[in-house]
Here is the input.
Amino acid sequence: MSDERRDEATAPDAYTRQMLEQGLSRRSFLGRAAGGAAAAGFLGLGAMPALAGVASEGKGAGAFAHSADGGATLSFLPKPKPIRDREIAETLTFDVVVVGAGASGVPAALSAAEHGAKVAVVQKAPFALSQGNTGSGVDLATSEKAGVEALVARLIADSNHRCNPKLIRQWAYNSGEAVRWVIDRAKQGGATVVDQGSPAQRAILKVNGYGMGYVTSFFGPKPYTTGDGIRALAKTAEKAGVKFFFQMPAVQLVQGRSGEVQGVIARGQDGKYRKFLAKKGVILATGDYQNNKAMSDYFIPDVKHLERKQLDKTGDGYAMTYWAGGVFEPIGHTKMLHDFDAGPASMCDTPFLAVDRKGRRFVNETVEMSLLNNYLKDPENAGHYAQVFDADYMTQAATWPGKQVPPEGLKNYMPDEPGPKKGVFESQVNTHRADTLEELARKLELDPATFVATVKRYNEVVASGKDSDFGKPATFLAPVAKAPFYGIHRRVRLSAICSGMLVDEHHQALDADGKPIKGLFLVGNLGGGFYGGVDYPLTVFGLSLGRCYTFGYLTGRHVARL
Amino acid sequence: MNTFTIPRSLGRSLVGLLATTILTAAPAKGPGPSKHAGRGIACAQCHGKGGKREAVPMRQCQTCHDPEALAARTAQVKPTNPHQNRHYGTQTDCTRCHHEHRASENFCLPCHTRFGFKVP
Here is the structure.
């Protein structure tokens, strides 16, 4: 195998090799379509299992010969005809063109501008957008080196050992600087942001016994979010000379003869195409593809029936990168489904009785909220469940995971309570109190008879001192017997899909040969290799935004210096 | 800003509108009932003059309806102003909710289950 004879220094790392073998690119599709050993031979990488699969299939080979994707054609992503020059209403030239004004794109643009580049940002929405509150990094000054490495190892394990360790390390060693930079520049733009530091990361102040410190940016409290923060950062970027073009969705990359990316074509609200040429590079920061049904059903069928939190995340950057020769991470992308809003976030992992949308118990409640989507992905439940507890919860759950909010504070999460709410999304609160179980069931939209029977059975289990139904530890068994009864109707929805297209450490897209595509860089959720597990891990609270800021910051600087 | 604003192109299009009314006095034949057609607006005015009936881009709506003025008109709608929201500002594509040839829909509702807007 020629790969083995390659110089160690230039050979791709293990993660990249696997992506080249199992990821999906136009070449792998074209190769498969051509079929047979000839295609594999032509491509010169006959050892690629997917291609080998097609070749073997032709010979009537065994059950393991099929590629993981079943010989995908990605028919939902036909490469469009290039838009012709005479269709272009206007051509503008910059050093760097960023597509997408979000938590990675705006930092990338500002960072590039601060390093001397003339920068444009084209954005589909009418303004900059982001979600969430917390974005985190490692404070190297207060962290032991062994702790940083232990955290890296923990994050790799969180991703079921499927991520690219180089990218995790890059985050770990650069994120403190990047998150501090975002805080400072967002403040210059008028943002409400604080560094909550290490106290926000209580569970990981020591990792494998080694001391750690963190930079934890917090844009909030709700309804103020990172969206507001990124808009403030965009103001700073504008002052630094970045030109923003809103309501201007990118539709195609401009590629030269050898495939190098020279710019991007976007369509304005007037329906006219504009060409943005990029002398140094295009940075795509277009977000995920959760609102693209075909792409979602194909790459992450688990979320088929789960509700989306975002709008217009149609995977534009994935499609454009794929057309340019880029490689999708293989099927089984990483998802993030949360509900921190229906009730207090601090109670989302408290192992109270939990029931599904009908009112049946369905899980050992020590499973965290961030993983419950896996039990609720059918069309009937669609991510809905309820946490249930009774009048004594403050004493019964005093030592359980989470921080229990007293009854007076719970009112802030109750839609039936009059008066303004504080620190919440008012339209998403969904906590209820009732004097009877039947009334609570109605408020939680459960079947009352089923729910009452579930509580009766649960109380029997509690009385026996052993959870013979689901095996929950006895310390977390408390009856639901004393009125008033409480319930939090949570629905986990898709915040993000955080798998993407293959990149190297410069966040430059790689083609099916593992070669960088000149002029094309990917950041944010579009960039692959940072996750790999079934679900986004909550080990470092705010890892997702922290990664977006960091890779935007680094990539903007890198491209500006080219 | 005025609470009520006359669509900005009304004056300009008044003559045209009358002409159109005369020319298309009969209700427009199409995929379904249309309030606009009922007011004498020809199909082509929204869908283009080509043979193919094209989807109506928001800029077409904006030739008569000013989103800013509309947002001002609905500023007091409870629980929130549908025409000024955190997702799109005043730039929500009209056709997300308002349909001509089928029942309109409340686009907010799947996520915001207590936003019970009646959409005309």
Observations:
- The first helix of chain B runs from residue 10 to 23.
- Chain B touches chain A at residues 57-59, 79-80, 86-91, 110-115 (CB under 8 Å).
